[in-house]
TrEMBL record:
It comes from the Bacteria. Residues 24-276 form the EAL domain. GO terms for molecular function: cyclic-guanylate-specific phosphodiesterase activity. This is GGDEF-domain containing protein. It comes from Alkalilimnicola ehrlichii.
């Protein structure tokens, strides 16, 4: 480190670039067989009603423990799975697995589980069918399953996507628009699209209440969404100030590390049981 020259930092840069490429190809390679090797697992992160503090559901988040690479973050492998097309089969697995878990949980608690769905699962036209199959196979109430989509699904073919969303909602499966505030965040979506929930992105929530402009925007988005009958979820709530502010601003639902981190099904179940016997946790 004492002799750091521009030459060695150039080499360092090349090496890290090489590492990245090498990483990417080994992730792609390992990803191809991950489903067969049963390396995926779903974790569940609770969502609470901010008025009552009651748990209303949880988001299913995909976890991958690779035999060769160890834990790989979804932020890393989902884009690669999308590029390679394997997101189709992985997405089917997520829906089936979440439906099975929803069936087990709903015997004990009246909850929904929400699955994240990527653009690909819209373009191959099987989404509604896959949801219906999973609901039927597990004798689920359709209300026990939600999907979370991002604005990116509207980019290529908004007409087709809207049609699919209408079909999905006719099944009784509710739809959340995820990561609101990161993309175009056209407020027009709220009016035109068939959605039940809007999830304020974590980046938005992070600045509450210190950044006055951001906070004013969040306030306006909450008011508009509520006026349109769309319920608002604040994601990434990490502290009591954010929690209290969102609650007072009329945000309906909260999710974040303050409430709980994503956890495996058995842990989620004991978390629910503890919370039920000890009363709600967030107020302390
Ligand atoms: P997302 O759907 O917006 O999920 C929220 C992410 O924020 C999760 O990261 C969650 O662990 C994290 N998070 C929740 N609360 C907090 C908090 O208070 N603070 C902080 N710092 N982070 C928090 P995760 O699990 O790494 O997932 C990242 C993204 O990967 C997800 O963003 C989603 O877009 C995608 N993803 C995850 N599972 C699936 C899946 O099954 N299918 C698809 N297509 N995408 C998925
Ligand atoms: Mg999500
Ligand atoms: Mg999100
Ligand atoms: Mg996100």
């Amino acid at each position: 480190a004492a002799k750091a020259s521009s030459g060695s930092s150039y080499r360092l840069y090349c090496n890290s670039l090489l590492d990245k490429v090498r990483d990417e190809s080994s992730i792609k390679f390992e990803l191809a067989g991950a489903l067969q090797r049963r390396e995926f697992q779903l974790y569940y992160q609770p969502k609470i009603d901010l008025r009552t503090d009651k748990v209303i559901g949880a988001e299913a988040l995909l976890r991958w423990h690779s035999r060769k690479l160890g834990w790989v973050s979804p932020a890393r492998f989902i884009p690669l799975a999308e590029a390679s097309g394997s997101i189709g089969a992985i997405g089917d697995w997520v829906i089936e697995e979440a439906a099975a878990a929803a069936a087990r949980l709903s015997r004990l608690f009246p909850l929904h589980l929400a699955v994240n769905v990527s653009v690909h699962q819209f373009s191959d036209g099987r989404l509604a069918e896959c949801l219906l199959d999973a609901i039927t196979a597990h004798g689920l109430q359709p209300q026990a399953l939600h999907i979370e989509i991002t604005e990116s699904v509207f980019m290529t073919d908004p007409e087709t996507v809207s049609q699919i969303l209408r079909t999905v909602r006719q099944l009784g499966v509710q739809v959340a628009l995820d990561d609101f505030g990161t993309g175009f965040s056209s407020l027009g979506y709220l009016r035109q699209m068939s959605i039940d929930y809007l999830k304020l992105d974590r980046g938005f929530v992070a600045d509450i209440p210190n950044d006055k402009r951001q906070t004013a925007i969040v306030d306006a988005v909450i008011s508009l969404a509520r006026a349109l009958g769309v319920r608002v979820v604040g994601e990434g709530i990490e502290n009591y100030r954010q929690y209290g502010w969102l609650r007072r601003a009329g945000c309906d639902i909260g999710q974040g590390f303050l409430i709980a981190k994503p956890m495996p099904e058995d842990e989620f179940l004991s978390w629910l049981q503890t919370r039920e016997t000890q009363g709600t946790g967030t107020h302390g």
